[in-house]
Amino acid sequence: MAPVRELTVGQVAARSGVAVSALHFYEARGLIRSHRTSGNQRRYSRDVLRRVAIIRVAQEVGISLAGIAQAFQSLPEERTPTRADWNLLSTAWRDELDHKIAQMKKLRDGLTDCIGCGCMSIDKCPLRNKEDRLAREGTGARRLVVS
Amino acid sequence: MAPVRELTVGQVAARSGVAVSALHFYEARGLIRSHRTSGNQRRYSRDVLRRVAIIRVAQEVGISLAGIAQAFQSLPEERTPTRADWNLLSTAWRDELDHKIAQMKKLRDGLTDCIGCGCMSIDKCPLRNKEDRLAREGTGARRLVVS
DNA sequence: GCTTGACCTCAAGTTAAGTTGAGCTTGTAG
DNA sequence: CTACAAGCTCAACTTAACTTGAGGTCAAGC
């Protein structure tokens, strides 16, 4: 069979739509993997495109790179993931998404009733209290991402 | 009638559950307003509690402080907002929320079909292309918030 | 064989949303 | 009237997710 050509960073960047610097960054974060040519340049196997696509999609739904990295741990090292591997991942995220959607709906439905009314007294407001509060941890910015 | 007591930062912090430093920060960002005592201490009118509550709720659904500030522009300066004022705001956000929920659903439904299948070739993948791409602008971190 | 565009590394900058700390002032309870 | 908790300001630090820039190397075309 025709050998599947390996890709350079530039090519991956062009095809995936993310900047070269971002690809470097993802690699540093362990989200993608490359090997080097004799001249120390990165070469990617084709499945990096899928990985990158998934990274962007996941980010769009509010999953942090750390979360994505964690999910990716379930993928096999040094073996191109099979469809089954990816399916496992997507199923896990589907649940996360379902949860988020449900949460948003609750908030949306609560908004009109609650902001508009006189009940915003914090302690008693159903909107403030019916949702499980975020567990806050660490320092610095806490809610950069809806997660 | 009994004069409605003004609140100190500490009281607002305690009642709203946000840190004093955050209140300072919100004020610097123009999200809340206070006047000062002769001794230069902040005093808040009661409706700051509602404002803060709304700030937190809005953040939880992924609206940035900048976005909240913008929405708050529609509220009257130097007049305690009426229920109608707040309603206007909540209606605007309801739409935003509806949009987000719809987007999430699309993504969720696309995920299983798309990640699991072999179509992740970026250019052709329906998931990658059917959504309106984010308009990227400025420098620095671009997708800290799902917006 | 050399020029030019693509790469490489590493450090530093950026934005958002706050927090932390130092140094100093207020206000209230005893 | 004097502690001492609560305020105040301002600068610096934090995290996430990248980008920008400087200074140097690779490789493909003419």
Automatic annotation (TrEMBL), chains A, B:
The keyword Signal does not apply. Coiled coil: none annotated. It holds the Pfam family MerR-DNA-bind. The keyword Transcription regulation applies. GO terms for molecular function: 2 iron, 2 sulfur cluster binding; DNA binding; DNA-binding transcription factor activity; metal ion binding. InterPro entries: DNA-bd_dom_put_sf (IPR009061), MerR-type_HTH_dom (IPR000551), MerR_fam (IPR047057), Redox-sen_tscrpt-act_SoxR (IPR010211), Tscrpt_reg_MerR_DNA-bd (IPR015358). Keywords: 2Fe-2S, DNA-binding, Iron, Iron-sulfur, Metal-binding, Transcription, Transcription regulation. Residues 6-74 form the HTH merR-type domain. It comes from the Bacteria. One of its GO terms (biological process) is response to oxidative stress. This is Redox-sensitive transcriptional activator SoxR. It comes from Mesorhizobium hawassense. The lineage of its organism: Bacteria, Pseudomonadati, Pseudomonadota, Alphaproteobacteria, Hyphomicrobiales. The gene is soxR.
